[in-house]
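User: Sequence recovery, please. Input:
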């Protein structure tokens, strides 16, 4: 694989340039938010929106009459703060969406896709909002305007050329509304395929698979009200200070009620150490609230070893002192405890301790605490899901909760903290590559066609299909597939193999530059923008509550369409006006889409009325402690194996993580304030003893490489930063390091790429 590839004479590069931008280092922070958080929020919004628009916009974000933050999926409290219900990074998300800058005809006349592809991801993102539909012809290097109707006809004619509907791929990123996602899923099934890869394939799919198998529902069981009631909250493989800042207030409420927090992470993330709440006047003065009570600095991907150790210790205490496990719960509600306890005997404590690298004193404290408490919540995110054993990581957490009877009661349960603001809703209303017989039969009854019964491609298999020439049209409802997926150069080749790639987007990104032979950009309204009169959309948050969202800002351009309108436009062009489903009508009347969702899914009774008011929770059997639908009617203990990384002396395990100034592939800025890294993203965090061993000094430049099945993948020019990270482990930022993640290595069952445990070598630049 080379760094550039010629398609139709277009010499575009799939990678952000490997130049350095002028690094500055400070000590890592020891608290989250506070005054620096407010300053950063306002400086981003003032720069993109000006002072007046900033204040007006932030005031209605996440309020009942306003719009849902386009950032993360953390829920809004029922009692909203008078100081605004948003966080620093939500403010940055809005600054990106509501910017004054525009990508218009003049922009694309000036810059070819080749030129733009040499810009950094940061620069591409800062070009502004896409103002009208654009076409890139096979023989051209510049996008040109195209009418909406011509764009829809072009898509329809390419789809009709395919030998089979399975030659088209329909990706979804998690910012779409329930209404857009449902209509999209309906169109794709009516078209005839289940090729619906989704960003959650790269994200919480491991959680969905593990939770469904063990507890009968692929979603978390807690609500926001459980946080103040929990005696212990474990935060595993998650960096909420950056990625879910409003979660820190929920943790604070637990602490205020004398709850305890155990954090398990290879890095001591600032937001979890201490929190100065920017939404409380007294939160900004003083020392704030200490959050983490016990920090367990686990080695990358050794969470199963650590959790097994905890389970073993708890089992021993239960035997000697009793009253540690909840046997009433275990007997009534679970199956498989005997096999689990027997399996724990196969492991020696010393081996487990060495493997996870945990300090014994901290471990003892954690075990002592967990032994006594009955109401435990476990929160987790990408640190657990993006490994080969991602599903087992989560099953081991479920084991702990089941032993303690910590499911289906107040102040206890599972909390997979979702990423994109509506990733959970998109899945609920039918975006999935697998087949749900119940959904298929409901669609058949309501829409009089037979949905396809063959499972479709998920993300990693879509990439392979395009690479192998088995899929030729790629359509994306949001997202930045090229840069978000693993193995950037391989994914680039896959996309470039397509006859047509279509991106329904708000902002320019690299997936608009590394394209199929023909490419379309269809610009859409952002969450914050006013739709046509009377219309509103709905989303589902990370805790299963569906509620409305209504934009208030004038649209970035008059020539934008809403997502449902775009999906309907494509569907109508493909099926024609006489089709028995009136696509145009559905696309323009969201109440009608909601009526259809209500007819297909039993949970959505009185959808429009209920979402317009306070919103409503979807049913959740785990929350109720009802496992009757599982085999034998019981929740399931699982036996999880230890991961097996046989690293050679010169190899490291590397995690690819988010900096404080990005939302996935959108780079807000070049600072990672909490980690003390400023004005640079090409960095690799490394243990000082490892640096000594490799004769590396602070800020030396290195190349990273991964070697899977004899293929070498390289990422060049990373500056070494000494950091408190376990020996043998490294951390780099996503998406710069995605080029190293092999497309064909992913979690068992969930197929989530191994973005948090890539085996790499490093080479010093001379
Ligand atoms: N501002 C902002 N908000 C976001 C996003 C964003 O990019 N920016 N992205 C959104 C999305 S889509 C998602 S999915 C979430 C992501 O939210 P997170 O999962 O918090 O994001 P990551 O930066 O990937 O961080 C993973 C954390 O896991 C730790 N970790 C890595 N490997 C391991 C391991 O093996 N074991 C343990 N115990 N820990 C490990 C890392 O040190 C890091 O603290 O955030 C959402 N919210
Ligand atoms: N190495 C590595 N890779 C990863 C991860 C990792 O931790 N490490 N994390 C993975 C995770 S958790 C995820 S979720 C994926 C994210 O994958 P994606 O969801 O595909 O990526 P994003 O960067 O969130 O997509 C950003 C683009 O979405 C478009 N957009 C923004 N808002 C809207 C909207 O309202 N409507 C529409 N139609 N478009 C909009 C904009 O054009 C923007 O450029 O990446 C995954 N990739
Ligand atoms: Mo995600």
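Assistant: Recovered sequence (766 residues):
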């Amino acid at each position: 694989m080379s760094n550039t590839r010629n398609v139709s004479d277009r010499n575009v590069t799939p990678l952000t340039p490997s130049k350095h931008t002028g690094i500055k280092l400070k000590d890592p922070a020891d608290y989250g938010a506070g005054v620096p958080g407010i300053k950063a929020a306002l400086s981003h919004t003032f720069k993109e929106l000006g002072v007046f628009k900033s204040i007006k916009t932030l005031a209605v974000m996440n309020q009942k009459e306003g719009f849902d933050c386009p950032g993360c999926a953390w829920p809004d409290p029922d009692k909203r703060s008078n100081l605004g219900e948003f966080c620093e990074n939500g403010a940055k998300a809005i600054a990106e969406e509501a910017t004054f800058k525009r990508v218009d005809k003049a922009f694309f006349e000036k810059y070819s896709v080749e030129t733009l592809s040499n810009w950094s991801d940061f620069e591409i993102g800062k070009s502004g909002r896409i103002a009208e539909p654009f076409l890139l012809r096979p023989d051209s290097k510049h996008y040109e305007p195209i009418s909406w109707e011509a764009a829809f006809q072009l898509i329809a004619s390419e789809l009709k050329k395919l030998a089979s509907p399975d030659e088209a791929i329909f990706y979804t990123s998690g910012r779409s509304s329930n209404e857009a996602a449902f209509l999209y899923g309906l169109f794709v099934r009516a078209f005839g395929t289940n090729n619906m890869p989704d960003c959650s394939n790269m994200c919480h799919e491991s959680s969905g698979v593990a939770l469904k198998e063990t507890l009968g529902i692929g979603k978390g069981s807690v609500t926001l009200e459980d946080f103040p009631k929990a005696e212990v909250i474990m935060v595993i493989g998650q960096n909420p200070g950056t990625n879910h800042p409003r979660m820190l207030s929920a943790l604070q409420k637990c602490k205020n009620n004398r709850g305890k927090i155990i954090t398990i992470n290879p890095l001591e993330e600032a937001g979890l150490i201490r929190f100065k709440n920017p939404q409380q006047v007294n939160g900004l003065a003083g020392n704030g609230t200490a959050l983490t009570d016990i920090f367990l600095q686990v080695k990358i991907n050794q969470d199963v070893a650590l959790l097994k150790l905890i389970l073993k210790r708890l089992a021993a205490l239960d035997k000697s002192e009793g009253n540690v496990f909840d046997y009433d719960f275990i007997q009534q509600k679970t199956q498989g405890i005997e096999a689990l306890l027997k399996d724990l005997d196969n492991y020696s404590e010393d081996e487990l301790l060495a493997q996870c690298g945990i300090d014994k004193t901290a471990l003892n404290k954690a075990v002592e605490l967990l032994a006594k408490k009955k109401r435990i919540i476990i929160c987790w995110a990408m640190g657990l899901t993006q490994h080969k054993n991602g599903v087992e990581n989560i099953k081991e957490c479920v084991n702990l909760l089941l032993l303690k009877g910590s499911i289906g009661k107040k102040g206890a349960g599972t909390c997979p903290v979702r990423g994109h603001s509506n990733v959970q809703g998109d899945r609920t209303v039918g975006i999935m590559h697998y087949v749900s017989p119940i959904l298929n039969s409901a669609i058949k009854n309501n829409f009089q066609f037979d949905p396809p019964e063959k499972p479709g491609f998920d993300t990693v298999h879509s990439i392979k299909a395009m690479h192998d020439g088995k899929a030729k049209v790629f359509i994306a409802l949001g997202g930045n597939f090229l840069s978000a997926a693993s193995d950037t150069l391989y994914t680039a080749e896959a996309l470039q193999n397509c006859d047509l790639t279509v991106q329904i987007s708000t902002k320019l990104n690299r997936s608009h530059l590394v394209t199929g032979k023909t490419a379309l950009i269809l610009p859409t309204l952002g969450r914050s923008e006013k739709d046509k009169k009377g219309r509103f959309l709905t989303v589902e948050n990370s805790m299963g509550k569906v509620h409305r969202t209504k934009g208030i800002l004038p649209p970035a351009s008059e020539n934008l369409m809403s997502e449902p309108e775009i999906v309907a436009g494509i569907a109508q062009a493909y099926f024609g006006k006489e089709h028995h489903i009136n696509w145009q009508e559905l696309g323009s009347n969201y109440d009608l889409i909601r009526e259809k969702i209500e007819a297909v899914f039993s949970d959505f009774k009185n959808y429009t009325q209920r979402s317009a008011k306070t919103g409503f929770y979807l049913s959740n059997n785990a929350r109720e402690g009802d496992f009757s639908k599982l085999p034998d009617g019981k929740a399931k203990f699982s036996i999880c194996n230890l991961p097996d990384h046989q690293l050679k002396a010169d190899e490291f395990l590397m995690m690819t993580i988010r900096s404080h100034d990005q939302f996935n592939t959108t780079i807000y800025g070049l600072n990672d304030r909490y980690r003390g890294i400023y004005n640079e993203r090409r960095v690799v965090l490394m243990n000082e003893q490892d640096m000594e061993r490799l004769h590396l000094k602070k800020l030396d430049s290195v190349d990273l490489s991964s070697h899977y099945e004899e293929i070498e993948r390289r990422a060049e020019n990373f500056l070494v930063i000494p950091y408190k990270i376990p020996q043998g482990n490294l951390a780099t930022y996503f998406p710069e390091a995605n080029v190293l993640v092999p497309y064909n290595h992913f979690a068992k069952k969930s197929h989530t790429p191994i973005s948090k445990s890539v085996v790499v070598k490093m080479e010093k630049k001379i």
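Confidence is low (pLDDT under 50) at residues 1-6.
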